[in-house]
Amino acid sequence: DSGVTQTPKHLITATGQRVTLRCSPRSGDLSVYWYQQSLDQGLQFLIQYYNGEERAKGNILERFSAQQFPDLHSELNLSSLELGDSALYFCASSGGDGRSYEQYFGPGTRLTVT
Amino acid sequence: KNQVEQSPQSLIILEGKNCTLQCNYTVSPFSNLRWYKQDTGRGPVSLTIMTFSENTKSNGRYTATLDADTKQSSLHITASQLSDSASYICVVSGRDGGSQGNLIFGKGTKLSVKP
Lengths: 114, 115
Hints:
Chain A is mostly beta strands. In chain A, 0% of the residues lie in helices and 51% in strands. Classes of the chains: A mainly beta, B mainly beta.
């Protein structure tokens, strides 16, 4: 158990809908990262937050947004969903200084768009 | 262009055998290289992290090597077990080691260990 929690585990929704994925980092970790992993694809970095502020941006679509709250949990919002958004979405967290090498991954949320 | 290439794409071995996975990168400047193990449908788990000055690091039956001159790394698995069946991902970080903006992910090697 990495100490990173993600909810929900599974999500099934229809095209055009909006969903919110939630992540709680390990106790004491200030950085949260979001990744997308489509079937048989590598991990794609979406966005990183550090202590509530956006730190780095990857291949995140404009339909997607994220935020990190004062209690350090993070939410990833996906809107106007398309079939191609079906994927595993992982959250990871890392050490307090934001420069720790180690990232701890959560169990993921499997999103299915029908 | 910063890239991380892993080979082979997939590998099947018999239980008890050894195997070696390769990772070549073009990321420069280099800060650190990480190997992750990802079971199907689960989050990746870190196996090793090596900085520029380290050329080998072990974690149980897993041994990673790094040649920063040739920009190559390998992950050697000894006496494989069925539970080693997973994808192994190589991740290279640029100068700002912790900043996500400089993390380059390989596509992974899918290892299957058969009884």
